[in-house]
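COMPLEX REQUEST
Ligand: calcium ion
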Amino acid sequence: MNWNELGLKIAKEIEKDVMPYFGKKEGAKIVGYSPSGDTTELVDRISEDNVLKHLKPLNVNIVSEETGTIDNNSEWTVVIDPIDGSFNFTTGFPCFGFCFAVFKDNNPYYGLTYEFLTKNTYEAFAGKGAFLNGEKIKVKEYNEKEAVISYYSRKNLNLIGKVRRVRIMGAFGIEMAYVARGALDGIFDIRPYVRTTDIASSYIICKEAGAIITDENGDEFKFKFDLNATDRYNIIVANDEKLLNMILEEIK
Ligand code: IPD
Ligand code: CA
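STATUS: Structure written out below.
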């Protein structure tokens, strides 16, 4: 299976279906609830229906934000968030995209994160480097005075004075891709709130771009054994050990 071709084809189809709703209230109409308890809005449903139309005939396992898990006892598991940043999408804030990750026997195999507005395609096959629109990408070299980070925490943290800029965009998977390309130095969520569907594709891309990915204790980040749409994670993604240590110090 050409996972990269399939991922991009689905991304482009979803883009065509949902972009007419960008920034419009009709797209936010609640049509159900996801397995993790979040509301499913009309645009989530439209995009997920498209994903399922392509993936169901393949008889692979599917983990998708709105539907949850479809277990076909396959060695392949495809993890998707059809729209990461749904709230941004419906309110007209231009940061959202499509996250598509493929695991083989529960090991990362391929990740694609696609931004509809910029048409930026971030992708990586495990072990083969990370790419943005076909060009190789690497995390940014860390310089404390120039660092830009994003973070999600229920604690009152005081990171604004410790880095040059803080940017919280509301689409975790997309923001992780920004770390991979060097637009952000790091990002973390310690609520814990993000699910496998939000982070899987960009996790593979960030790893290939050289990011360090840990849990809230600084231990290597691991997906729980059964990939599912409900587990919530603490995750820290950083371009450098020094940044990771600074974050760990702040959150403890
Ligand atoms: C959300 C975004 C957001 C993050 C939430 C996610 P969704 O994804 O990634 O940045 O803070 O945890 O649920 O619901 O728009 O796909
Ligand atoms: Ca979503």
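REMARKS: The chain has two domains: 3-137, 144-251. The radius of gyration is 17 Å.
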